[in-house]
């Protein structure tokens, strides 16, 4: 891990009218670090993630991001073209519902290849080969390369979405409940796969989940949210094994888990 944070979040708040989405959130994320955001339904996890990834504009606060040229840029003061470029190259976003992150009517190969073309690769043979390699990396048989994702199972779609996001070697990946819509048996394998890829690629990631097992397996550090506030944060093992806040204790002892 580098000695400079990748992301610096300062007093971020988002209000929906008078309702709190998230409030006064501050933290730093280092390269290669996986941060889990946990909390019950409505605690503000998605709101926070969407503000961080600039899909949503916060009401107050700032987020700065260390670009590849080492300069820090304020995410909310970039122009649209710069933000889009970041999203296409440096960042990935894995949606809970793969249909939101895939193009369902183009082939699996094109779903992966498209991201490569977006970063300037124009060599068809190489793009197809890289797409095929990535399909096998996410355990999709290469002979499915010309099939559309609508003919894939839920787990396959999610793995395809992951391949599409990781093919460009992003530095930061946002994930909102990446295993949320899947059968328990499929979840475990997907998590294993995801953990391997994140480790191998040295990715930084912010993972929203209500599932503490996902946080345990994937993350180095975690933040616990309640009613829009971060009420506890720390190393994942510390928070899960020795929670300080009463609310986190209840969460961990599964009284609050659904
Ligand atoms: N578009 C919106 N308009 C108004 N209020 C919203 C909107 N989106 C979220 N909220 C409110 O903001 C709060 C946080 O919602 P958010 O979706 O961030 O929670 P969450 O932790 O992601 O929940 P879940 O686990 O159910 O996905 C909730 O009170 C919610 O009702
Ligand atoms: Mg949510």
From TrEMBL:
<dbReference type="GO" id="GO:0016829">
    <property type="term" value="F:lyase activity"/>
</dbReference>
<dbReference type="Pfam" id="PF00005">
    <property type="entry name" value="ABC_tran"/>
</dbReference>
<feature type="domain" description="ABC transporter">
    <location>
        <begin position="7"/>
        <end position="252"/>
    </location>
</feature>
<dbReference type="InterPro" id="IPR027417">
    <property type="entry name" value="P-loop_NTPase"/>
</dbReference>
<keyword id="KW-0547">Nucleotide-binding</keyword>
<dbReference type="InterPro" id="IPR003439">
    <property type="entry name" value="ABC_transporter-like_ATP-bd"/>
</dbReference>
<keyword id="KW-0456">Lyase</keyword>
<protein>
    <submittedName>
        <fullName>Phosphonate C-P lyase system protein PhnK</fullName>
    </submittedName>
</protein>
<keyword id="KW-0067">ATP-binding</keyword>
<dbReference type="InterPro" id="IPR017871">
    <property type="entry name" value="ABC_transporter-like_CS"/>
</dbReference>
<comment type="similarity">
    <text>Belongs to the ABC transporter superfamily.</text>
</comment>
<dbReference type="InterPro" id="IPR003593">
    <property type="entry name" value="AAA+_ATPase"/>
</dbReference>
<dbReference type="InterPro" id="IPR012700">
    <property type="entry name" value="PhnK"/>
</dbReference>
């Amino acid at each position: 891990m580098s000695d400079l944070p990748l992301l610096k979040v300062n007093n971020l708040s988002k209000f929906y009218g008078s309702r709190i989405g998230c409030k006064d959130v501050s933290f730093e994320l280092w390269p290669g670090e996986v941060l889990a955001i946990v909390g019950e339904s409505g605690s503000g996890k998605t709101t926070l993630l969407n503000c961080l990834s600039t899909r949503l504009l916060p009401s107050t606060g700032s987020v700065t991001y260390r670009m590849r040229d080492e300069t820090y840029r304020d995410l909310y003061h970039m122009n649209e073209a710069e933000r889009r470029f970041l999203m296409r190259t440096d960042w990935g976003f894995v949606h809970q519902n793969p249909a939101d992150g895939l193009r369902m009517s183009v082939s699996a190969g094109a779903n992966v290849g498209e991201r490569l073309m977006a970063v300037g690769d124009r060599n068809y043979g190489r793009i197809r080969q890289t797409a095929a390699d990535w399909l096998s990396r996410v355990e999709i048989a290469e002979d499915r390369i010309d099939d559309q994702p609508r003919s894939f199972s839920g787990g396959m779609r999610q793995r395809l979405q992951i391949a599409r996001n990781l093919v460009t070697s992003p530095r930061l990946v946002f994930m909102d409940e990446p295993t949320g819509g899947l059968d328990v048996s499929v979840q475990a394998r997907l998590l294993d796969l995801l953990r391997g890829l994140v480790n191998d690629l040295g990715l930084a990631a912010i993972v929203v989940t209500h599932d503490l097992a996902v946080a345990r397996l994937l993350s180095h550090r975690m933040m616990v949210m309640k009613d829009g506030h971060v009420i506890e944060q720390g190393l994942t093992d510390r928070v899960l094994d020795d929670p300080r806040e009463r609310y986190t204790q209840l969460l961990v002892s599964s009284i609050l888990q659904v």
